Amino acid sequence: MKCRVCRGPAVIDVRRHNANFCAEHFLKLCRDQVAKAIDQFDMVAPGDRLLVAVSGGKDSLALWDLLVELGYATDGLYLGLGIGDYSDDSARYAIDFASRRGLRLHCVDLRERYGYDVPTAASATRRVPCSGCGLSKRHVFDEVALEGGYDALVTGHNLDDEAAVLYGNVMHWHMDYLARQWPVLPAARGFPRKVKPLVRLAERETAAYCVLRGIDYQVEECPMAAGNRHLAYKEALNHIEERSPGSKASFYFGFLERAASRLGAETGQDELGSCVRCGAPTPGDVCAFCRLVERATARPATGAESPVDLRPSGPRPGHGPGAGAGLAERTDGGRSERERAAR
Amino acid sequence: MKCRVCRGPAVIDVRRHNANFCAEHFLKLCRDQVAKAIDQFDMVAPGDRLLVAVSGGKDSLALWDLLVELGYATDGLYLGLGIGDYSDDSARYAIDFASRRGLRLHCVDLRERYGYDVPTAASATRRVPCSGCGLSKRHVFDEVALEGGYDALVTGHNLDDEAAVLYGNVMHWHMDYLARQWPVLPAARGFPRKVKPLVRLAERETAAYCVLRGIDYQVEECPMAAGNRHLAYKEALNHIEERSPGSKASFYFGFLERAASRLGAETGQDELGSCVRCGAPTPGDVCAFCRLVERATARPATGAESPVDLRPSGPRPGHGPGAGAGLAERTDGGRSERERAAR
């Protein structure tokens, strides 16, 4: 097994590229793919100040490392979800990464700042945990990015994540989500610009990148995400990819190239007002996040109440653990009403 | 387990309808679903003369039986493909069915009428067998339907078939195929009207229908179709359906309802001329079918020749055996250039 580039001993095969690579040229491949994605989709400009959503998993840490390598000015944002040891360990990986490199990492803890955590939210709202978790991440990421005046919020969604979300949206023909599944979202009133520079890398590749770069990361999957639909979609795609390498990329990029524009139907944001509590964009008086906070910080649910309506169209278990920290809107098939209405 | 309708003992559960049925009411369900599909998509009118493509498998025989039950004037068409015992047995089932009911069945044999069979075509063209088989069926079905002055050619594609074809077309974002994946194709110069009244029935249901109606059918899968991609797509969908009954129907009908029109881009047929040999529509001088016949009836291939260009975009293994006789164009992801250009 020889490196396609230098013919030296290879350390990894990338079947969808039908090629093997040595460590040096695999790392270069990763950098090139990220640079290409940024360029291809006009994600960010040189000199932009980027806020990287960091979970402590392979994707977000690889992303941060890659962006630094490529010369971008980045800070990180870690959101403590309060999921027991899983969150404690994840925080440690994120903090270690940042401190070893002298990078700035914002740490926000759901319980400290808002008085609840993901398990509490799940039990208070009687929704799947991914639902309140996704809503919380979207809100906090937006808030911190806007407060800090960053030019873009950067998330670690990789090719597997995006393909799995697309798969779910296609299986249900969620036209509004399909219309907006693009790796860049421009800034809008109340929303930062959002970009996904890892869309050209598979999760196996971000894992290998971390190993080769000596980056320690949270390898456990989120214990609260077990059985979510996103994981089933990933499995289905993996099965196809196994049989026919390159299928996943051709599915995702074929969509972007040929179908996305035809399925596009802009939804206006004119109808959005501001949340009377937090000021975030919302079609109602109080945004879904503030309703979640209210419910999750109230007395324990008695079981007699009806589930909180976090999302107008009901819960769609969102992102899987493989999605890293970058679990922002439009990628998990289950976003808040403000996102639905606005983007 | 009780029948949803009469509360008598049920003989079948239909998970996607979340209901069980006795024999009588299951058979009624099947008739109702076919009547509904015909109505929903304006497939045929009362009094139309229909030509049913019959393979001897469960779908096409159930379809023929259902159309007779619903009072339509139907003749059958069986095409002998020359696939050894499989074809011999299939013919017997089709002929038995017709003769017991006093129905008229056209029998065309590829070797008798055109001088080749599917195995010969596959080896002469060095393509997967499904490729030449699909092309042959499309051509002969069209020819016989037009010669006989039928109002429509009716094929036995069921929900599983259509969902699997859609799945393949979506995985590759074949925009031209997606734009035309509709259960009715209007007649056009050189093409009969084509309709698929089984789209609201799953293949498990057509099999149960045959069993309950005492219809003997070919239960073997085509020995030449093993490993084709269509079967892999069916498996992937079955996996999802298993987990979440109704997914397949929601995928297919969601597409028809919400996405098909947006993906539609009419392809003109103005550019089509007539084949100088058989008169069928073709963008070139000689149609793909006549090129196939020429190649398949010539001396055996030496192995030095290049594969016959049956399809401009290369071979896409088409329909699986589950698709019954109704393996007409636009449903197997691999249709001839004339179909591509014309429909």
User: What is the ordering of alpha helices and beta strands of chain A?
Assistant: EEHEHEHEHHHEHHEEHHHEEHH
Reported for the largest beta sheet of chain A, the result is:
6 strands, mixed
Q: How many beta-strand elements of chain A?
A: 10
Q: For the largest sheet of chain A, list the strands in their spatial order.
A: 5-4-3-6-8-7
Main interface by residue count: A-B, 21 and 21 residues
Query: Pairing-aware structural class of the strands and helices of chain A?
Result: alpha/beta
**Helicity level of chain A, as a percent range?**
40-55%
Number of helices of chain A: 13
Task: Determine Rg of chain A (CA atoms, Å).
Answer: 19 Å
- Roughly how many Å apart are the termini of chain A? 46 Å
Taken from the alpha-carbon principal axes, the silhouette of chain A is globular
Low-confidence stretches of chain A: 311-343
- Mean pLDDT value of chain A: 87
Oligomer: homodimer
Q: Give the DSSP E fraction of chain A (strand runs of 2 or more residues).
A: 5-15%
